[in-house]
Structures are given as C-alpha cells and as structure tokens.
Design goal:
The structure holds two protein chains of two kinds. Chain A is mostly helical. Chain A has one domain. In chain A, α6 crosses α7. The radius of gyration of chain A is 20 Å and the shape is elongated. Chain A starts with a helix and ends with a helix. The model of chain A has no long low-confidence stretch (mean pLDDT 88). The mean pLDDT of chain B is 88. In chain B, the strands form three sheets. In chain B, strands 6-7-8-3-9-10 form a six-stranded mixed sheet, with helices on both faces. Chain B has a four-stranded antiparallel sheet with strand order 2-1-4-5, with helices on one face. Chain B has a four-stranded antiparallel sheet with strand order 12-13-11-14. By secondary structure, chain B is α/β, with parallel strands linked by helices. Chain B starts with a strand and ends with a helix. The longest helix of chain B has 16 residues. The chains are: A mainly alpha, B alpha/beta. At the A-B interface, α1, α4 and α10 of A face α2, β6, α3 and α5 of B.
Chain lengths: 247, 306
C-alpha cells in the first residue's frame, strides 16, 4: 500500500469537489448549523427566562448533549462525499480506467476514504471552535467559568468523531456498491445515523450518560463496528466485484 | 506481445468467453469482431487484469494474467480505453491526463510534454482547461485515448472506440489509431465496424463466445468462405440450370442472366461449370471471380455459431 498513491486519488477527488456545489454545501451546512444554532438557542432561552434550558444545574448535561451532534454530523457529512466519490464515479463510468492502472484496490479505497474523512474532520473541528466560543460566551455568566474546552469534549472530538467518520465512510462504500445513483446512495446511507440518534435519545431519557466515560464506551462500540464494516467494504471494493456485480 | 491459450470466463452457468486461443505480435493491430454479448469486452477485461479468468492462460508482454505480481506489471505496460470512455467529467482535460500521468510516476517535465503532445495531436490543446463534461462525444473519445497513452504503454486496448461517434469524429479517431500503428504500437481493437477493422487491422479475430477464426482481413475473405464465380450469359434456361445442378456446385443461384456459385479453386472448378453451360446451349458473355467480403465472412461465422 503506497500512501502517496492513495493521496493522489484523494487529491483528484478534492479537485472534483471544488466543481461540485452539492458536496461543498453538504460539508459546510451541518457544521455551520450546529456551531451557530446551539449557542443561539441558549442565548435565546436565557433572554426569555432565567430557568429552563439555561438553568445552571442542567447546563453541563445539556452542553454534552449538544456536543453529541458533532458525532451525528461526523457520520452525516461523509455520506454525501463518499457517495458522490464512489457512486458518482460509477455513474460517470470512470472507475474502469482507474482500475486498469497499477493502483491497488486498497490504494483506491484509501484515497476515497481520505477524500471523505479530511474535509469532514476539517469542517467539524472548525465548527467546534465556533461552537465552543459561542457556548462559552452565552454560559460564562451563569456558570462563572468557561465550560469549553474540557476533557469530555476533547475525547468526543479526538476519538468519537474520527471513529464515527470512518464508520460512515466504510458504510458508504458498502451502500455505493448497491446503489445506482448518488441520491439512492444518500437515502440508504442515512440509516447509519439511526443508531447515533438512538444513543442521543437514550441519553435524553437518562439511560446513557454522555460524559467522558459514556463517550469512551461509544467510541469502543463504534470502533468494533468500524472493524466489521472494514471487512465488508474491502470485500465489496474489489476490481471484479465492481465491474461485474456492482449495479 | 499478447498470447492466450484456451482462455475461458464463466459467470455462474453462463460461459462468456470459451477457450479463446490467439496471438498478437509486437506492433500489430488486432481487430476483435463480434456481435453484442460475444464476449469481446469480457476478453479485454481479462487481459487488462480487471476480472479473473475461469480457466486457460494469457500473457501480455510475457507477464501472466491471473496472479497479483503479473497483473500489476501488466497494468503498468497497458493502456485501456473502455467502451464508455470513463472520464472524470468534473475535471479539466489537462487534469484528467495529469492525474493518470502521476499514477505512472512520470516526471513533471515528462508529463507536461506528453500532455501537450497528445492534446495538440488530437486538436484539444486549446480546450485543455475546459471541464471534460463539456466536451462532445468525439472530443471525449479522443481525450480518453490520450489518457490511455499518457504513460507510453506497450499495448493499447481500445473497446469500440468509434461506436456512437459521428462520421467525422470516427474518422479522426481512426486516423489517430493509424498514426499509432505507424509508431508500431501493439493495439487490441474491439469493434463492430467491419470496414474499420479491414482498414486498420493487420489481423482479425471473429468472436462469438468462441473464437471462430483469426487471420489477416485478406486471409479471411479468401480462405474462410472462398470465392464466388459470376457467369453472365445471353440467356439462362432450365437446361443450363439442370446441367449445373448435376455438378453439385455450392450456393448455386440464378438472377436474370447471371449465375453465381461458390468456388474454392476457380481455376479448376470454373472450367467444368462453363463447359456444362456451353454444352447445354448457353452463350457465355463473361466469367468473373470475386472474393467474398469481410462482412460475408463475419455474418456467416456469427450465424453459424448462433
């Protein structure tokens, strides 16, 4: 496996994305929403009343719940990128000449993964700075200290988010092998968000706690899912499979 | 350069390519003819190490298909233009070629020179910064050929390169292939176009799951079906026809004052036939011997194997 060749595939995809507004929007919109929306909600509720959402006692839990949307975003954004990058090539029929080059299946797949992972992480990390600044600005008066940065959010950003991105990319590869177009790939891809939404709902009813331990457990489970998806996706992403069995 | 021995591909119970044995020499243009579903694309895919073979063997440039090491080496020395072109539509013409040049580790200077050379040869240099998706079919086909040549491959596989092109674009592509032929590039050309095959190819193979025949276009015309004798008479009557029927001539037909039949050795067979016509009271005006066309050969072989 030559990383330089995988990077070559990823670089080409980055060039393609520059001409694809849909992909640019899918990378930008979700991070902008979560980084601006949650501080705005807090600011709004503080102005309306002194309790409720902004009550000091529930604020840390609430902020951790808000933080979990970075995991959901990390799983959501690669769906659009990876779907285009693989199904888009399938639709354009540009995979066949690529597969006829000395690149290995692994190099092509890694390149595709890099092209989905890096923009997602860049967008989520940039959004996390805006989010932290915004949340601190709206809560420092009530809490008496800056809630962010903290270890919990650090674990979420540096461990859970990358693991979720990888899960989404690998899942997209599998979906792409069965989808005929980018839209249907996105439709099937959305199913990967359901377990994450379930975790969020379970945390809301108090069954799971979204603290540092909770995030580590979630990261462990997602890592196991990643390993399973890795084997399925590498089995699906093989020259013969792509040319003869992919729809 | 290309050698196959009983090359076979099965998809489940379906045999797509059956026991194909052929040889393409260095610098030769080999035309692979056959109807849709004959197995032409499957053969190219096997030779380009894109799909596995079920049985048999094949080598390209001495490297064997079907094993990892050989496949990697083969993919370094071949260029492929698939039937669907397969360009990245959201990349410029230049970037499409640049990407493939980088895959084959060509140096910056080498790559720039090759890109310029091919784009100029194909009349696309002025359009180098336009997205490939904005190109016409003919321009895309030319760009795909340039892409396949960017690393100066020893063998070029072209899968129906002029299909769906307007006559002018098809002519440009054909002329470019002829240029490559002058450069002694080994070319494996899948085509439906018999005229194209006849004009470009040194050797032709007709495939319909099994390889029906291989040879030069002239060999095929002469040897596979042989020749036709056309005799023009003052008048054709029943007496003449029954005299000819006694000779058991192949494919004897009569149209107006003309009688046609197949012959494998005109010098020997025509004498007896003409004598029979004259003895039956016929007045022979002309006797012509014509070879069957490649189209006749193709249709005969394909129909036989259907």
């Amino acid at each position: 496996m030559r990383l330089s060749k995988a990077w070559l595939v990823a670089s080409r995809d980055f060039k393609i994305f520059r001409h694809q507004k849909n992909i640019l929007y899918s990378i930008i919109v979700f991070p902008v929403i979560i980084s601006v929306l949650f501080p705005a909600i807090l600011e709004f509720t503080q102005l309306r009343n002194s309790g409720g959402l902004a009550a000091v006692g529930v604020l840390p839990n609430l902020l951790n719940s808000f933080s979990f949307f970075f995991v959901i975003g990390a799983a959501y954004i690669p769906l659009g990128i990876a779907s285009y990058s693989i199904v888009g090539e399938k639709v354009e029929k540009s995979l066949e000449p690529l597969l006829a080059t000395p690149l290995t299946d692994g190099e092509i797949l890694l390149g595709k993964a890099i092209s989905a992972v890096l923009p997602t992480l860049a967008a989520m990390y940039a959004a996390s700075i805006v989010f932290m600044v915004g949340i601190d600005a709206t809560t420092v008066g009530r809490l008496g200290y800056n809630y962010f940065p903290n270890w919990t959010f650090g674990v979420l950003l540096l461990i859970v988010v990358p693991v979720a991105v990888v899960m989404s990319v690998l899942y997209s590869v599998i979906v792409s092998s069965r989808a005929n177009d980018v839209r249907s790939a996105n439709s099937y891809g959305i199913f990967i968000l359901f377990p994450l939404l379930a975790i969020y709902l379970l945390s809301e009813v108090g069954i799971i706690s979204l603290d540092i331990n909770g995030f580590l457990i979630i990261a462990g489970i997602l890592s196991a899912v990643d390993v399973a998806l890795y084997f399925v996706s590498t089995a699906a992403f093989q020259r013969e499979e792509i040319l003869t069995k992919w729809k | 350069m290309i050698e196959t021995e009983n090359l076979t591909k099965k998809f489940g119970n379906l045999t797509a390519v059956d026991n194909v044995t052929l040889r393409v020499n260095d610098g030769e243009v080999f035309g692979f003819l056959g109807p849709n579903g004959a197995g032409k694309t499957t053969t190219i895919r096997m030779l380009c190490c894109l799909i596995s073979k079920t049985s048999g063997s094949a080598t390209i440039g001495g490297y064997e298909i079907g094993n990892k090491e050989g496949s990697l080496k083969i993919r370094k020395i071949i260029g492929l233009v698939p039937d669907n072109v397969g360009l990245s539509e959201h990349l410029t013409a230049y970037d499409n070629l640049d990407f493939y040049g980088k895959i084959y580790d060509s140096s910056d200077a080498q790559r720039k020179e090759s890109i310029k050379r091919f784009l100029e040869m194909l009349g696309l240099w002025e359009k180098r910064n336009a997205l490939a998706g904005t190109f016409s079919k003919g321009m895309k086909q030319k760009l795909a050929i340039a892409r396949a040549l960017i690393h100066d491959p020893q063998v070029l596989f072209l899968d129906e390169p002029t299909a769906n092109l307007d006559p002018e674009s098809a002519k440009t592509v054909r002329e470019f292939i002829l240029e490559l032929k002058k450069e002694k590039k080994t070319i494996f050309l899948n085509t439906h176009n018999l005229d194209e095959a006849q004009r470009i190819c040194d050797k032709i193979g007709i495939l319909n799951t099994t390889l029906r025949v291989t040879g030069t276009p002239q060999d095929l015309e002469q040897e596979v079906k042989g020749k036709k004798t056309i005799v023009s008479l003052e008048q054709v009557n029943e007496k003449i026809l029954s005299a000819l029927k006694k000779l058991s001539l192949k494919n004897l037909t009569n149209e107006g004052n003309k009688i046609t039949f197949d012959v494998s050795d005109p010098d020997k067979e025509n004498w007896g036939a003409v004598e029979a016509m004259v003895l039956a009271g016929g007045h022979v005006n002309t006797v012509n011997v014509v070879g069957s066309s490649l189209e006749d050969v193709y249709l005969k072989l394909v129909r036989e194997s259907a």
